Amino acid sequence: MAKHSLLLTALGVTAACAAGYTVVPTIYNKRIRRDMVRTIPQQNAVMLTFDDGPDPRYTPALLDLLKKEEVHATFFVVADNARENPAIIKRMQAEGHTVALHALSHRCAWLSSGRYTQYEFAQSVQILASMGVTPRYYRPPWGYTNPHTLPTARRYGMRPILWSVMAEDWSARSTADVITDKLLARVKGGSIICLHDAGENSGGAPGAPTRTIQALARVLPILKGRGYHFVTPQQVQL
């Protein structure tokens, strides 16, 4: 009986420690922390952001669409993907988009020690610096954080940015029509929209970004017709 109680106590302590390292920081940062950016203070503007790229199968087509619509976006890139596609990063910069940091390899912060978290940021910053990028903004994969995530981001001078609108565009069930309907129903003034320009390498469905691009081809003109303009973090001084 005593052994059983000790085992339950040990399991409870382990669970509490795990929650303190993973769930508690994530909930606090996502929902409560005041300096975490979730919206922008302009009711006639929205911020369009993309995670997980660059991906040579999808990102160039997305950039073509943004150029056609004269829309600037923010790309939270995976540094390993950026290293493999430097020409896409250069094109983003040349066309007025903001290149920000998402991760080194899209690893969940819940599985990362403090030492690995510091390594991930150091490596990511080094990779992007080799392309002339000094990231000023950061978005953790899935919005998950541990106690080391945001202090390390700030040490490198990065402001964390989350989102207020998603359209579940990574899902195999999300057709272009579904994504279109969700965006038009959810976007309002001040929204930060989170979409994805990479798929399989970060847990998305095969070909998912193609459907996202198809949806945006319909959505962007409609949002502009509603009077919204698209801004980057620098333009709203985040």
TrEMBL record:
Pfam families: Polysacc_deac_1. PANTHER family: 4-DEOXY-4-FORMAMIDO-L-ARABINOSE-PHOSPHOUNDECAPRENOL DEFORMYLASE ARND-RELATED, GLYCOSYL TRANSFERASE-RELATED. Keywords: Signal. It comes from Neobittarella massiliensis (ex Bilen et al. 2018). SUPFAM superfamilies: Glycoside hydrolase/deacetylase (SSF88713). Residues 44-231 form the NodB homology domain. It comes from the Bacteria. The lineage of its organism: Bacteria, Bacillati, Bacillota, Clostridia, Eubacteriales. Residues 1-18 form the signal peptide. One of its GO terms (molecular function) is hydrolase activity, acting on carbon-nitrogen (but not peptide) bonds. This is Polysaccharide deacetylase family protein. One of its GO terms (biological process) is carbohydrate metabolic process.
